[in-house]
Amino acid sequence: MSRFFAFALIFCLQLPIMAQPLKRVSPESVGMSSILLHNADVPIQASIDAGEIPGAVLAVVRHGKMAYIQAYGNRQVYPTKEPMTTETIFDMASCSKCMGTAMCVMKLIETGRMRLLDPVSRYISGFEDWQPKDGGEKTTIRIEDLLTHTSGLLPYANAAGLARKYGSPNPSGLKEYICTCRKDFEPKTGFQYSCINFITLQYIVEKITGQSLRDFARENIFGPLRMNHTDYLPCAPDANGVWKNTDEPAWASLMPGQDWRSIVAPTTKQEDGSVLRGMVHDPLARIMNGGISGNAGVFSNADDIAILCAALLNGGEWNGARVLSPLTVETMRTVPRSVSKFGRALGWDCFSPYASNNGDLFSDQTFSHTGFTGTSIVIDPVNDCAVILLVNAVHPEEGHSSMIRLRSVVSNAVAGAILVKG
Question: Which of 85, 99, 173, 275 could be a cystine partner for 266, CB 3.0 to 4.6 Å?
C-alpha cells in the first residue's frame, strides 16, 4: 500500500509539468459557426493545390477554448512527403519577437528591473545613440523605441559578412556591430521594422538576468504555461563545418526513443541538398546567435501558441499560472502615444502597414504578428478570439509564395464565423 501512495505522490508532483492543451469544443459552444469556419479551409487548400505552400495548421481560440484546429497538406515535400499534423512544430521566425523577447521584456518591466524609458546604453556598454550627420546633439534610443521599431536601427545585417569578421556563432561580435552600426533616423520620428531592434533587446534581457534568453523565457513564460513543445534550439557548426543542434528541445523528453525532429516542419533546402529541420531559418539567429536570438529562434506548435493566446486574452494568466499582470498585458498591446501614428505596440503590431494579417473584420483593438517562414498570430481581445495560422511557406525553397493575402482572407473567414459578439 505504501508503494501505491508513493507512486501516486510522484504522479501528482509531475502533473504541473505535463502539457495541458486547451479544451477542444464545438464552435457553436463558443458562439461560432462550424459551417462558416470551413470557409477558412478553402483558401488554404487552394494555396496548397496551387503549389504555393506545402501545408498548414489553423487553430482558432475563443473564450479560452480551442474552437477549431485543422491540419492541411504536407509538412514536408522534399526529399520525401510527410503529412501535416496538428502536432507539427514550426519555426516561428519573427513571431519569436512577440512570443519570446517581448514577453520577457514586459516581465522585467513589471518586476521593476527595467522601464520603457531606460536608455539602451544603460545596459549595453559602447552603444551609440542617434546623432545628426552634422555632429549635433544626440538623441537617446530607449527600450520603447526598440519594441515599437521606431529606434532608427538598421533593419538587418549581413550574417555571412559578420561571420567572416567575428567567427560563427558569435553573439558578442554581433553586439559589437550593433553598438556602432548606422542609425537611419532620429528615434520616434520614423518606423522601420528591424530584427536588430529585438536582438538588442535580447542582449539587454540577458544582461539584466544573467541568463540566456532561452532559459529566462522557459523559466518565466513557457514553463509556467506548460508550453512543453515550445523552445529555442541552439546550434553550431561542427569541426567539418556542418551545422548541428547542440542541445535537445523541451519536447525531446516527451518522445523517448524517437527523433525529436520528426515532428518539426522543415524549412529551406540548403546548397548541399539537406533541409533545415530544427535549426532556425533566420541567418542572423542561426549563424551569429547560434539559435537563441531575440528576432527569431522560437519553435512551437498550435496547441502551445493557443495557450499563450488564451493567457493574453485572460489578462496574463492561464490555468492557474500567471506570467504577466493584466495591466502589463494591456500596456503591451497598446500603441504608445508618442509613436501612435506608426501603429506598433510593444512587441506586437496593431495597425502598421505590416498588419494586414488582421483582416478586415476583427475589432480595432486587434494585435498580431507574422513570421517570415509563414507563421501568423492574430488576437482580438474585444471578441475574445485568436487566429493561429502556421505554414512552412519557405519549404522547400524561398520566394515561391506570398502569405500576405492568405493570412488576411483566413482572418476574415474566422471573424465571419463569429455569430455571438464579445
Answer: 275
d(CA 355, CA 375): 13
Q: What is the separation, in whole angstroms, between the first and last Cα of the chain?
A: 51
Q: What is the pLDDT of residue 400?
A: 63
At 56 the pLDDT is 98
**Low-confidence residues of the chain: pLDDT under 70:** 1-19, 400-401
Cell of 280: 532556425
The pTM for the full model equals 0.95
How far is 201 from 218, CA to CA, in rounded Å? Answer: 17
Nearest alpha carbon to residue 143 among 176, 182, 116: 116
Measured between alpha carbons, how far is residue 58 from residues 7, 274, 318 in Å?
39, 27, 21
Q: What number does CATH give the domain 114-212?
A: 1.20.58
Alpha-helical runs (H) found in 182-264: 195-209, 213-217
- Residue 262, SS3 per DSSP: helix
Domain borders along the chain are 22-113+213-422, 114-212
Task: Report the CATH architecture of 22-113+213-422.
Answer: 3-Layer(aba) Sandwich (3.40)
